[in-house]
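Students often ask what a 'structure token' actually looks like in practice. Rather than answer in the abstract, let us consider GntR family transcriptional regulator, a protein of 321 residues. Its sequence is given first.
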Amino acid sequence: MSSPITRKSGTPLYIQVKESVLAEIKRGEWKAGDKLPTERELSVKLKVSRNTVSQAYQELEAEGILSSVQGRGTFVCDRDNAVRLENRKELLLKIIDVAMEEGMQLSFTLEEFVELTALRAKEKIDLLRQVRVVFIECNREQVEYFAKRLQTDSGVSITPLVLDDFRQDVGRWQPTVASSDLVITTFFHYDEVKELLGVRKNVLAIALDPQIETIVRIARIPAGKKIGLVCKSDNFAGKVLLALKNAGIDNLAIEVFASLSSQAPITEILSQLDVVICSPGRRREVEQYAHRRQEIIEFVYKPDVASINLLRAALIDLRRQ
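Now compare that with the structural description of the same chain:
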């Protein structure tokens, strides 16, 4: 690849990899239908981590540039036929048109079609509200934030469970887990969660990645700024620092402030910082005591596109059984 990867540029490595892949496609080096190097091959060639290449590929797949096929690899999409995010509405309308035509061939009127589809959608919504899900993760910030977002978006009842709490008192949490329809965890903890459950239970592993906007904002922090990471646990802080390192952001001195118990320390700490990176669980507190000139960056993790689609399908399938 002709576009060099520069670690000290201030631009996250995975964005540089993404732009390099796009440049190759625009130059015609890789055409529609061409198979790209594997994540491992490209990471070796560019001398970056495999996770960096994976993030770049996921972004390009979400934008309709690339398409991954299980067991075969990653390919360049036909741009004229690619299903891009901005065309989802158009695609859905085509699906509805086909359904209407088939309904009319079955002698249903358009009014009956509208009535039946509205009824079916309501049934699905009601069914989702009956689904009970447990989300198990290793740090409290992540598990609480994700559970709240998922519950708001889908109406599904989510019980957040910190992995350490589950380890220390399996007996207490076992009834909650056993009565749930689905257990969600991350790929990193999947094997341990399965072992802790000790019963046959639906467990779905998802990938949680840092939000792109968060990484970009941190990468753009000018040199010399005093930066602090304010969160609830050392576990979360460690994940943030590792994520920044994997993105190639290793030129910033970030001081960690976790598990602060009173207002006085956080007020004193914030007064010494130019930029505050905070976990979702501490954002409101940080905003309350920060001074006006400080930049506040909330460090948010979110499921990747494939995980979101997999989760949606799993929730719908639960009530078909």
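One point worth highlighting: Residues 81-86 have pLDDT under 50 and may be disordered. Ask yourself how you might have guessed this from the sequence alone, and why that guess would often be unreliable.
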